[in-house]
Design a protein that fits this description.
Structural class: alpha+beta
Strand content: 15-25%
Radius of gyration: 24 Å
Order of helices and strands: HEEEEH
Shape: rod-shaped
Length: about 120
Amino acid sequence: MHKTGRVILGLVLATALALISARVQRTGPEQVVYSNLCGPTTSDLCYKPVLKGGFPVAYLFDAPGVSVEDQLAFGEDNVEPVAFAVDVIVYFAVIVLGHWTVSNRRLARARRAERALTADG
């Protein structure tokens, strides 16, 4: 496979992993407004920790009042593009590092086998 094809495949895999990572969900510490009926006069804003998804950096944030509350979905909730790009970059770096490690081990094994053959012959 050509180098360009490997890079494209790596980017596709990294993007897929970043999208799948939205299933890693946690709440807070960021706060969002979900109502305006709080406080002693029930006229203050109500805040609660926001549900967010993505790993290692959260990029999908629940939008209370717009989407199903406490449930993340693309198209309904807020996507932070810079955080998503960071996730893709991290996954791409892991893929490149893994590929480099496997390639170097194969090369080292082939060199050892070649040296063994030349030493015997």
